[in-house]
């Protein structure tokens, strides 16, 4: 069957167990969904994901979430082949553009030639310049930033350059301008960085600082055509919700919507479901990652999953027979694991349409992530370059 609309939802960082190459990344033993379930000790209430088959795709069910006897969805896992485990790598690979070469990392901070150019362009000093937790860095240096007007520049285990500033000290327009300039500094070897991230925060003092929804990602321009470009070139609508526009630098998107939160992102999905369009709606829900994974907060992570599951119920109730829903993730970020960085994991894959006439079956392990995009292109009769479609397996 061919579908008129495909709704893809990426649960940012919701991994489902260590990938075969996890040792390369120091992530053996990671399992985002499993450890969140263990933390909730059988009380993780995700009935809609459960009936779709979220535990069926795992070697061991999520604690308290039994495999569905008759899963509604076709279910499986996807294994990444890209060189890194960043959001950009995962999303690009989903859309037929695996990242083959590792991006630059900065475990000792950024070199003087980059920092000096940031100082000169912004007219501001730079403080920190080393790997740091995003919430810890504003707690430890936010008051200094407010007093001096300096830029808090830091990184993580991923290929990112992040700049934090209090919104009352450095206006958003100025912060975005500085980040856009920083983007121009790290597009060519030897310093090719995946993302520049503006990290504004508010609050009166270190015990009350909070990061705001005005975060903005300045991502490396896609190095080639993506499946979104191919869909758009073929005349289909491509709707980007949440970080999608930033991750693809606006390429291949006909309409884009910014998310204030996961809840807000799902509201955008509901609104798009009311539209009479033909094409692909692509959503990223980042709170799992930004709010709970990096902060190693399994309680908050599970609460966000349960809230998503409630909204998922409304999505399922309003899907039309010629709609297809695809749910996956871009990497793991295990809140029960050591450190604060992304974790190299399998990601879940769930495919559902009200038109299915059979009980959901296993799609196995799909690799690369590009099988996701290949299936979407296959549905719309557009030739794919990377990946193998599983469209014909959906009955």
TrEMBL record:
GO terms for biological process: 2-deoxyribose 1-phosphate catabolic process; 5-phosphoribose 1-diphosphate biosynthetic process; metabolic compound salvage; nucleotide metabolic process. Its cofactor is Mn(2+). The keyword Manganese applies. It comes from the Bacteria. Its main location: cytoplasm. It catalyses: alpha-D-ribose 1-phosphate = D-ribose 5-phosphate; 2-deoxy-alpha-D-ribose 1-phosphate = 2-deoxy-D-ribose 5-phosphate. Residues 4-383 form the Metalloenzyme domain. It is found in: Cytoplasm. Mn(2+) 1 binds at residues 12, 330-331. Binds 2 manganese ions. Its EC number is 5.4.2.7. Mn(2+) 2 binds at residues 289, 294, 342. GO terms for cellular component: cytosol. One of its GO terms (molecular function) is manganese ion binding. Gene3D superfamilies: Alkaline Phosphatase, subunit A (3.40.720.10), Phosphopentomutase (3.30.70.1250). Isomerase that catalyzes the conversion of deoxy-ribose 1-phosphate (dRib-1-P) and ribose 1-phosphate (Rib-1-P) to deoxy-ribose 5-phosphate (dRib-5-P) and ribose 5-phosphate (Rib-5-P), respectively. This is Phosphopentomutase. It comes from Paucilactobacillus vaccinostercus DSM 20634. The gene is deoB.
């Amino acid at each position: 069957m061919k579908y008129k609309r495909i709704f893809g939802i990426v649960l940012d960082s919701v991994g489902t167990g260590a990938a075969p190459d996890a040792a390369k990344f120091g992530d053996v033993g990671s399992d985002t969904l499993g450890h969140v379930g263990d933390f909730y000790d059988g009380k993780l209430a995700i009935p809609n994901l459960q009936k779709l088959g979220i535990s069926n795709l795992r070697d061991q069910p999520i604690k308290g979430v039994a495999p569905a006897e008759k899963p509604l969805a076709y279910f499986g896992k996807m294994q990444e082949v890209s060189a890194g485990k960043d959001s950009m790598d995962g999303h690009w690979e989903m859309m037929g553009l695996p990242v083959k070469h590792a991006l630059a990392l900065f475990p000792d901070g950024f070199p003087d030639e980059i920092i000096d150019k940031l100082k000169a362009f912004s007219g501001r000093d730079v403080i920190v310049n080393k790997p740091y937790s995003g919430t810890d860095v504003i707690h430890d240096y936010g008051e200094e930033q407010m007093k001096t007007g300096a830029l808090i520049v830091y990184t993580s285990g991923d290929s990112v350059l992040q700049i934090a500033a209090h919104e009352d000290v450095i206006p958003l327009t100025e912060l975005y301008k500085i980040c856009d300039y920083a983007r121009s500094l790290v597009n060519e070897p030897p310093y090719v960085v995946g993302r520049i991230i503006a990290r504004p925060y508010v609050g009166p003092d270190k015990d009350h600082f909070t990061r705001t929804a005005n975060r903005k990602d300045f991502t490396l321009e896609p190095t080639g055509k993506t499946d979104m470009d191919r869909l758009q070139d073929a005349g289909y609508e491509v709707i980007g919700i949440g970080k999608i526009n930033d991750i693809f630098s606006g390429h291949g998107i006909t309409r884009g919507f910014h998310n204030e939160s996961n809840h807000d992102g799902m509201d955008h999905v509901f609104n798009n479901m009311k539209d009479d369009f033909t094409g692909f709606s692509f959503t990223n829900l980042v709170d799992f990652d930004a709010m709970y994974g990096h902060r190693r907060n399994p309680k908050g992570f599970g609460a966000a999953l349960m809230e998503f599951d409630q909204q998922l119920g409304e999505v399922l109730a309003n899907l039309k027979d010629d709609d297809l829903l695809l749910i996956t993730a871009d990497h793991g970020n295990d809140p029960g694991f050591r450190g604060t960085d992304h974790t190299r994991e399998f990601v879940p894959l769930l495919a559902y349409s009200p038109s299915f006439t059979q009980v959901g079956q296993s799609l196995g392990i799909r690799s690369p992530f590009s099988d996701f995009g290949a299936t979407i292109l296959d549905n719309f009769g557009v030739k794919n370059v990377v990946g193998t479609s599983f469209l014909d397996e959906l009955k």
